[in-house]
Structures are given as structure tokens and as C-alpha cells.
Amino acid sequence: MDDKEIIERARKDFEEDFAKNGYMESRTGDEKHLEQILDSLIVNDGFKVLDLGTGSGYLAFPLAKRNPNSIITGLDIVVNTLARNRERSVVECLHNLNFVDYDGIELPFDDNTFDCIVTRYALHHFPDIKKTFSELRRIIKPNGQLFISDPTPNENDTMRFVDAYMQLKDDGHVQFYTKAEFDDLAIGEGFELENCFMSEVVFRTEKTRDARFPEISKGVDENIIAGYVKFIDGQEWTIEQVLNLSFRAK
After folding, report:
1. Average pLDDT of the residues in 75-103
2. CATH number of the domain at 3-199+243-249, out of 3.30.559.10, 3.30.1490.20, 3.40.50.150, 3.10.20.30?
3. Taking 90 as the threshold, does the pLDDT of residue 119 lie above it?
4. pLDDT single digits (tens) 16-63
5. Which burial class, exposed, middle or buried, applies to 62 when counting CB atoms under 10 A from its CB (0-12, 13-18, 19+)?
6. What are the φ and ψ backbone dihedral angles of 246, each rounded to 5 degrees?
7. Is the pTM here over 0.90, yes or no?
8. Which positions ≥6 away from 180 have C-beta within 8 Å?
9. What residue spans of 20-124 are helical by DSSP H?
10. Which residues contact 50 (CB under 8 A, 6 or more apart)?
């Protein structure tokens, strides 16, 4: 599968999910984690902030409300969802918030545009992660903040079972990254790590019922699978550890 096919799969799946009112928020929403991210971002008056992979604006809307004298831009491939976001921003009188769609490859901004870039639960869908980091460095200003929140493999999952498991949902999942891998990607483009904390995301799923599950789990240690899949009162839940990394552009 080439990059454009991965992006198109992600676009199709997420457009369908975001069209279900409140669906994504009910799956991955977490008010405590949201506040942790917002508190980690240093946004001054006049700053330009990019929310990369904004989706339904889960981060962008509270960012705009919290920072009325800064300009917040949400970027994503989900054209229909962004159209609804724009309608909502008008209703809520958020004149400092705008949404931009793009092809999922080239970030459509000039060099040194943003003072702060934040991305939540998105980078594991990007097919060319090295190019993405190169583009992020290009559009961020010197001394700008890059904040990444993204699930990561468990330490015992050296086989990367989690990626095959997540790919059972046809949404363009590419791979999760370890802290060391994110460090290498960021440092290689001239960022330096300032802070890191862990969080967790838990959501309902039915992946073990997928006909492909026996094949991807064949030969995988039960402890590895149990680190991601839990059954509570007969319902299946996915549990993922999340890296929250704040980098500074040199």
C-alpha cells in the first residue's frame, strides 16, 4: 500500500467516525488529559498555533477559547468534518480559529509560520514520518514548541503486535513509536526534548472478534496481548500507553 492509499483509507474511516456526533470524543476523550495538554502548551498573545490532525477540533476549540488573542489553525485531511468545524466556530464566535484541509503529505504553510504546534493521537497515521518531522521543523519558528501526544508500544512488545492489532481497523494506522524513536526523529530535525509525561487511553473495541485476529496473535506471548486487550463484564477494551512529549526547536 502506497502513501496515498494509506491517507485515503484514513480519510474515509475518520470521515465516517466523525460524522457520528460525539463518537470519537466518547472513545478517546479524556478531560483530565486534555487539561494536561493545554497546561503544557506555552501560548502567548499573538502566537500562531497549529493543531495537526485536528479532527473534530477536540484540541482546537478549547485552545481558541483559552487563548482569544492568539490564532489557532486546525489542519486535517477530513474535508467534511472541517466544514462542520467551521460552522461550529461561527456559532461559538471563535474568530481566532480556522480550519485548513490538505493532502496529508505537504504541510500547506510558509516557513517559520507557527510559534507552537500540537498533535494528539495522529502521528501514527502518517505514512512518511521522517518527511513529516522535516515539514514540522520547516513551518515552526526558531524556539517554537512542538508538543506530541501519541500512543506507544508497551515495553515488552518487541514484536510490535500492537501495530498489527490496530491495523485490524482499516483507518490507515501505520505504527506507534517509542520515546527513543520520537527522540531520534525530532533531534534529527533540530528539536530538543524539554519534558515528557505518560498517560493512558482506554476505549471499547471488538478486534478479537475479527477473523484476522488469530493470525496476527499466533506465536505472540499472552502477556503482550493482555497488555492491550482487557475484558470487563464481557466487553472488550483496548488500553494504550500514551507518550506526551514537549520539544523545542533550536
Report:
1. 98
2. 3.40.50.150
3. yes
4. 999 998 888 888 999 999 999 999 999 999 999 999 999 999 999 999
5. middle
6. -110, 120
7. yes
8. none
9. 23-28, 31-40, 60-66, 79-91
10. 73, 75, 109, 113, 114, 116, 117, 118, 139
